[in-house]
Amino acid sequence: MSSTRLPVKISIVMPVFNGEKFLREAIESVLAQTVTEFTFWIGDNVSTDCTAKIVESYADPRIRFVKNSRNLGIYGNVNNLIRQAEGDLVQIVCADDRLLPDCLENQIKVFERHPDLSFVYCDTTATDFGQARPPRRYQGELPNVLFPVAGGLSLFCFGCLPGDMTNVMLRKECFSAVGGFREDLPYAGDFDLWARLSAAYSFGLNRRKLTFEREHAGRASQTMTKNCAHIWQADIILEGLFSRVPSEHRWLVKAHGTMFHASHFMLHGLNAALRGQFRTAGLVWRRRSYSFSNVWALLFIITSLNHRISTGWTCRRLLVAIERANGPTR
Predict the structure, then answer these.
(1) In this structure, are residues 168 and 120 in contact, taking their beta carbons and an 8 Å threshold?
(2) Are 213 and 164 in contact (CB under 8 A)?
(3) Helix count (H) and strand count (E) of the chain?
(4) What is the pLDDT, as a whole number, of residue 162?
(5) How many CB atoms lie within 10 A of CB 143?
(6) Strand 145-146 and strand 202-212: pairing?
(7) Could you read off the pLDDT of 126-173 as tens digits, one per residue?
(8) Whether residue 176 is found in the same domain as residue 248
């Protein structure tokens, strides 16, 4: 166990709403960290189950239990916790996931090597079913540290790179400087924050598998496609990322946006139309500056289903652009 005093203060924040099923396991994973000097903030979003009773059963002095007077939404809850937390570095943990014992230790080491990073995300190890997550075919080729231009290209190319918030440790000073999570984007608030942080600061990739990301029916991401609400929220972020793209990469980025983002959204729209949800489907049919057109996106869906074109050529070319663009002054 680490007994030396850390050069920075560490806080862990855990938002929870009706999380009794997995909460104790999540809390135990935090208390079992090899780094022991931290404060642990748990925010209860007006749960109606045994969440409060579970948290209050722990006598650990590092735990700070915050009972919200009203439901703040997930990002409102996280914002509230981080603003109260005294840590210079803040690790987020969702109440249905868990940290592996050396998570904090390894995340901190990345910040020690690169003190200018705004956030670091790690890889995750397994799902609730004990299965390793499928390898991210091209994402693994990204540089370990991404500066603003390359960071924006990377987020546009691969979307919400960290995946689950549990994979992220962030610097509170940078979090505060950009205003925290947007609470009006309940399905894409995390993607939005990483995009805004990447516009002003560098961020890092920790390739170690340091978290256990649980898949289950009640998970928020399992319901995020309802009414295609995630589409217009992701569109806002992608448009912002596209506005940062240097002119020499615009054509390539629009091709990628057509093949991957617009076509993905169009597919959701087609499924909604088949279910008779025409108003929902109509949300998808809109002009996107980061895509050539919806028609090309539909053609891509048809041709990719027949395996007539390679779906990875824009990823490979964007990785080259990202490598060339990466650097503190670029």
Answers:
(1) yes
(2) yes
(3) 13, 9
(4) 93
(5) 16
(6) antiparallel
(7) 554 444 443 367 888 999 999 999 999 999 999 999 989 999 999 999
(8) no
Question: Hey, which residues does 44 pair with through a beta bridge?
Answer: 16, 67
Query: Nearest to residue 96, comparing CAs of 15, 163, 151, 205?
Result: 15
Most distant CA pair in the chain: distance in Å? 61
Same domain? For 115 and 174 the reply is: yes
Q: Rounded to whole angstroms, how far apart are CA atoms 274 and 65?
A: 46
Identify whether residues 205 and 249 lie together within a single domain.
Answer: no
How many domains would you assign to the chain?
2
Instruction: List, in order, residues 6 or more apart from 247 with CB less than 8 Å away.
Output: none
Amino acid in the structure at residue 248: E
> Nearest Cα to 17, choosing from 39, 62, 50, 40?
50
Q: Provide the pLDDT for residue 127.
A: 55
Q: What is the pTM of this model?
A: 0.90
User: Residues 15-47: pLDDT tens digits?
Assistant: 999 999 999 999 999 999 999 999 999 999 999
Domain-embedded: residue 4: no
Instruction: Give the single-character DSSP code of 101.
Output: T
The tokens for 266 are 């169009």
Output phi, psi for 171, to 5 deg.
Answer: -90, 120
DSSP sequence for 170-191: EEHHHHHHTTS--TT-TTTHHH
What is the rounded CA–CA span in Å between residue 20 and residue 56? 12
